[in-house]
Amino acid sequence: MFQLSIISDLTRIPPKMFSLPRLVAIKQELNGKYANKVIPKLGLAIAVWDVLKVDDGMLKPGDGSIYIKVVFRCVVFKPFVGEVLTGWIESCSEEGIKVNMEFFNDIFIPKSLLFENSLYSPKDNAWVWQMDEENKLYLDVNERINFRVEEEVFNDVRPKGPDNPIVFDDDDQKENEQKKKHSTPPYALVASCQTDGMGCVSWWE
Amino acid sequence: MKIEVPRDKLLSNYEVYQHLAKIQDKNAWFFTVPETKTKSGKKKKRRNIDSLIDLEIITKDLSRYLVQNNQSNDTQVQSVINLVLGLNMYKLEMIEKLQILNILPRSMVLLYAIIEDCDQRFSEEECEDLLSLVNSSFPLPDKEEGADEDDAGEENEDEQMDDAEGEENGATVEEDEEAFENINGDLQHEAPGLKPAKKEEEEED
């Protein structure tokens, strides 16, 4: 589920942090920059593990900060394809199930990757697995479930530009708000729930 | 930013949780770790640094998630070592060992879900042995009430004292950590051969 990645980067230590020991200041800057951020094509960075190499600091004209090239190791959340993980069902819809892992929420199990003979029941707002003619198993919201990672999806999310102050168009604003709601996550997992051992944890105990 | 090595090492949930516990202790955040006092007996002052807000969020969410998934402050290094040493006796892939350590399967179904082609590679007896190995290294909490728990509590206190004072009792913990790193080394030794194979699999997928 987690791994260490070696990353090199140029950190900027602002003058207000000159009073701190160099390594502490560097770690603080790196944690501020990377913690809880998705690194494209890699995964979700959690925290700095250790700093491997610190080059000499450099100065730039017109800036009081030091620029230091550092090589560090970072804890990254990147489950591999086929890994079994545990989470909670956040919501069910006709398309599938959204799973929540507290620190990471962009996990989706599409209906094609659910158990065979599964049906969405709008009345219960849950997916129902018709195991055989008599037994029905419910995948309710907030149930704890096991799932298997099938695919990871990275989206290039561009930074939001500044709002244009000249155009005051209501339609535009509405569009923007809608975009915000349906923004694509930078890192998402597609999971499956088809084999024995998957689905609600309580079923298999 | 440049990613030098995307996957330098794999981390177990145990290691990640220990790292987060250290971060919490350092910043006096105490989401899942018990509060420690400073030498003079005062409450440690909570550190609030604006740039570390993301680290605080991810530390809180992730450590809560891990506590709900088999990690606790009382987990002993020795039990992790026991389990990994025991797992080395079986012909398991590295990622399978890692998942067993993370998930701690208690039922046959879950073990089959984690281990690929389990029925062909292992006999039923071996699978039962694996389950009992997990159970003996990490007994379920309701079974081991009494003496064991007291021990765990005491040792935990010791560790906290180490953190606070950094000298007394340090030796034992250091030894433990050393042993743990050796184990980690063992895992890594097997890794190079396995990793490329795993990557190929992923590409084929």
TrEMBL record, chain A:
Domain RNA polymerase III subunit Rpc25 per the UniProt entry, residue ranges: 83-204
Domain of life of the organism encoding this protein: Eukaryota
Domain RNA polymerase Rpb7-like N-terminal: 9-64
SUPFAM superfamilies: N-terminal, heterodimerisation domain of RBP7 (RpoE), Nucleic acid-binding proteins
Protein name in UniProt: DNA-directed RNA polymerase subunit
Compartment annotation: Nucleus
CDD domains with a match to the protein in the record: RNAP_III_Rpc25_N
PANTHER family: DNA-DIRECTED RNA POLYMERASE II, III (PTHR12709), DNA-DIRECTED RNA POLYMERASE III SUBUNIT RPC8 (PTHR12709:SF1)
GO cellular component, one term: RNA polymerase III complex
Biological processes per GO annotation: transcription initiation at RNA polymerase III promoter
Major localization listed first in the record, in broad terms: nucleus
UniProt keyword terms in alphabetical order: DNA-directed RNA polymerase, Nucleus, Transcription
Role, per record: DNA-dependent RNA polymerase which catalyzes the transcription of DNA into RNA using the four ribonucleoside triphosphates as substrates.
Signal peptide, first to last residue: none
One Pfam match: SHS2_Rpb7-N
Stretch list, region Disordered: 158-184
Keyword Transport: no
GO function terms (MF aspect): DNA binding; DNA-directed RNA polymerase activity
Record has Nucleus as a keyword: yes
Family in the record: Belongs to the eukaryotic RPB7/RPC8 RNA polymerase subunit family.
TrEMBL record, chain B:
Gene Ontology terms: biological process: transcription initiation at RNA polymerase III promoter
Key words of the record: DNA-directed RNA polymerase, Nucleus, Transcription
Subcellular location: Nucleus
Stretch list, region Disordered: 135-205
Cellular component annotations (GO), alphabetically ordered: RNA polymerase III complex
One of the Pfam families matching this protein, by short name: RNA_pol_Rpb4
Entry's Gene Ontology molecular function annotations: nucleotide binding
This protein's record includes keyword Metal-binding: no
InterPro entries documented for this protein: HRDC-like_sf (IPR010997), Rpb4/RPC9 (IPR005574), Rpb4/RPC9_sf (IPR038324), RPC9 (IPR038846)
Biased segments, Acidic residues type: 145-180
Family per record: Belongs to the eukaryotic RPC9 RNA polymerase subunit family.
Cited PANTHER family: CALCITONIN GENE-RELATED PEPTIDE-RECEPTOR COMPONENT PROTEIN, DNA-DIRECTED RNA POLYMERASE III SUBUNIT RPC9
Name of this chain's protein: DNA-directed RNA polymerase III subunit RPC9
Species the sequence originates in: Dekkera bruxellensis (Brettanomyces custersii)
